[in-house]
Amino acid sequence: MSVSEEIKRLHELHQAGALSDEEFAAAKARLLDKEAPSGISNDITRLRRSQSDRWLGGVCGGLGQITGVEAWIWRLLFVLFVLTFGFGLAIYILLWIFVPEEN
């Protein structure tokens, strides 16, 4: 059952009087917290350029820290994107500009 279907079901129970306002709000919050993607969205907000694992701007070191993938693999991916598609350098530069450094 998808999140929207579960919320719809909770709303139906609330409308039928089976759930109070507080119970409905608490159940909806638990459902949304449980189903929130903890990987990508939270990791993107935690993304910082590394000061300790850096060659140029620290972008690959920061990506390595939040994903658990070694920084050299990220560096290799950026080089492969530069050589094959040509846009790896642009992505790296944009990340270098817009991702803040770690404190």
UniProtKB/TrEMBL annotation:
- Describe its membrane topology: Single-pass membrane protein
Mind telling me which Pfam families this protein's record contains?
PspC (PF04024), SHOCT (PF09851)
Q: Which InterPro entries match?
A: Phageshock_PspC_N, PspC, SHOCT
Its annotated compartments are: Cell membrane
Q: Where do the TM regions start and end?
A: 76-99
Q: What is its main location?
A: membrane
Q: Where is the Phage shock protein PspC N-terminal domain?
A: 46-102
Q: Which domain of life is it from?
A: Bacteria
Q: Which residues form the signal peptide?
A: none
| Gene Ontology CC, one term | plasma membrane
Residue ranges of every copy of the SHOCT domain listed in the record: 5-32
Q: What keywords were assigned to this record?
A: Cell membrane, Membrane, Transmembrane, Transmembrane helix
Question: What PANTHER family does UniProt report for this protein, alphabetically?
Answer: PHAGE SHOCK PROTEIN C
This chain belongs to which protein, by name?
PspC domain-containing protein
Organism field = Rugamonas aquatica
